[in-house]
Amino acid sequence: MSESKTRLGVSAFAICVFILALGSNGVRNLVGWAGFLGLAAALVVWGVVIFVRERPERFRWYRLPAPLYWFLGLAILSILWSQYRFESVLGVLGQLATTLLAVVIAFVLSWHEVLRTLGTALRYLIGLSLVFELIVAVFVQRPVFQNFIDGFVDVPETGKVPKLLYWSRDLLFAGGPIQGLVASSVLLGFIALLGLIIFGIQLRAGLVRPVRGWFWVVVSFGTILLTRGATVWVALAAVVVGLILALWARRLGPERRVPLYATGGAVLVTAIGLVLFARDFVFGLLGKSGDLTGRVETWQKVIDLAEQRPWFGWGWVSYWAPWAEPFASLDEKAGIQVMSAHNAWLDVWFQLGIVGLLAFAPLIVLTTWRVWFRAVDPPRRGYGPPLTYATSALWPFLVMIALLVQSLTESRLIIEGNWLLLVLLAVKSRFDFQLPSLEAEPTKLPWRRVPITSETGAVRVQR
What we know:
The protein is mainly alpha-helical and 463 residues long. The protein is built from 14 helices and six strands. It has one domain (3-462).
């Protein structure tokens, strides 16, 4: 098999993984749970085959982040004391499968290949979501229910159908909120935010043609507007602040960043203060209530349960199992059981206790630390002078910010697509730490070629 065909197969695998993980709700609506599990199993097998065939030389088990082992090991052990053992086994298997796919992508693909395949997957998810909403608005002209709901949750007999059961509410021409293929304005808004980050980086780095790049930037921003989610706007603001700090850090250099860290700390403290003491005002500006659509009530109930088993939790399950206790009677929204704590940190405490948080937090902190320095440290080759920064070094840090902000109001960080991205960034930043430079940046724009001076003084042009 030629090298080009081999890389094409690897790229296709990564695109399929990103689409399945980030667009899992849409896939389940299209093919059902049985089809979704079958596709997931096929991707796991495909990933193992690719990994064995590629045999990445840099792979060593000890190169995986230690907190990842701690967290997964505790999740496996929690089956022993779980209050819902069968569901815990299923949750652990799903967690391990997602982790395996992330590890394969991290070791088999380069940073640029990850950026490119993630961008392709996001274009499919955003584009098809808008096409789906357009079809519903033009041809169906009424709300559409999620296909996988039957047999999974009970539709309440109140005469009013909860919004959570809709696949599309047919609100495209009304200005939203639209839900897209993923059947959730929150999830679609976050996917659009990821798209805005990835497409913006690709556009600025010259990795795509300007017309194509600007088109998808505009489409992503328009999708965020149509989802009308408060959390995604907060996450977007955090990403913008993170980008400003990263560019400032690049300008200052490694030796003069104390004012930057002081400013970043002040911004963080201010943000926390606003959330704690002025939540009604802040979210009122975004057209949302201060209780975050009932999340505060859910958080309190989860805290009450977590305090009953504070150290090791109730057992790992990832997605809540609404048919099992204590989930069946824990909380309801609009007549149906909630499927998560709507906060990744509370969910980890609830399921794995304080010990779980002590394993989870280092994974987050160390990953954020590594992608920050990947974004702001000057690239070098040997002992020579620093090279020109590459734009593509920024995207892991910006994606990490988006993941962290969403983890405060959603539990997606510990399941499916967001867990995949977290593990991917954690693993790849742990072993693949060579910083990209501008002259090594692939480009599709001939007029952005970079002149390089060789040791003999001759000038050559690098694409």
